[in-house]
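Entry 14. Ran structure prediction on the chain below.
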Amino acid sequence: MPMEETRLCLLLQAAGIEDAALTRLLLHCGCPASLAAGGPALWLEAGLSQLQVGNLEQTLLHGSRSFDIDSQLAALAAVDAVIVPVTDARYPALLRTNHDPPPLLYARGDVALLSQPQLAMVGSRRASPAGLRAAGSLAGDAVAAGLHITSGLARGIDGAAHQGALAAGGRSIAVVATGIDRVYPAQHRRLAGDLVQAGCLVSEFPPGVPPLRHNFPRRNRIISGLALGVVVVEAALPSGSLITAGTALEQGREVFALPWSIYHAGGGGCLHLIRDGAKMVQTIHDVLEELGPMYSLQRELLPPLHGQGVEAGLSARQQRVLQLVGYERVTVDELSRQGALPVAVLLAELTFLEMQGLVSRTDGAYIRS
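Output, structure tokens:
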């Protein structure tokens, strides 16, 4: 993004317009530059009040006394961060479909990763050793199935999920509740650096914002909004992870939870979710079986990669599975018999092929796209 557009985005953030109104304004105008050029008449047409129009005009002309734009630009440059407006092609389309998408995202690392298929994993900051082990293992298995792992960089389950994804050679996205130039908790500074190199850090808050308590529940809607589904690995009652599960349900995402013992106090939140209809998870295949419809939605929002280039990049086993799937519907059991492959292995490979737009799933069976 050119420096002038970055400056313009920061000025929009400083104008004191609530996020929902700023998102509507950007979508109405088409981009930040068109917004600035449109002037008060266009802003009123987009639904801003006279007071908001006056504040925006004043800020664009004269800046903001409470918001040092030059310091903000320097902070972004220091950590090599970019701003992605809701109108930008790089803005994750799945998140944009939510009723309250952030008007601006601040990101470090691979921004394109935000539009790729993700599984969110959340849970207790005071996780048990078993919970940490489960988070790392599930994250690694999800990576093997072609999913990226999204979480919140917090202590406990979040950190274990990020680390499990990276240890498996995968990619991971951390949605933070601070400015993009800050790392919280400080003990995850090295992990944050690893994520910038092999994933992405993203925030809706401008540089300099400290870890304020009320911002943590707010960022949970981005964690769930980026992902196809949310796995609550370990959570007590009450729990912030249940807030993420709630936002996931509001956004039409799948919610999963691990079945802890009734004697494990740290698992009460998971049992509560399962009682209320969350899918019980014992292995990653329980997750993969439920994500077909959301894969289809994401393929509509993110143009599929068709052609020989994609097929040439498949592993030998993926190519073999693709050859088994023809242009007539075939079930997983039939594919398992034909290819002498375990059902669990087939599900993982079929999920990956579905994400690439090479096969489609209808009524529990598969067909070439």
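The longest helix spans residues 129-144. Will compare against last week's run tomorrow.
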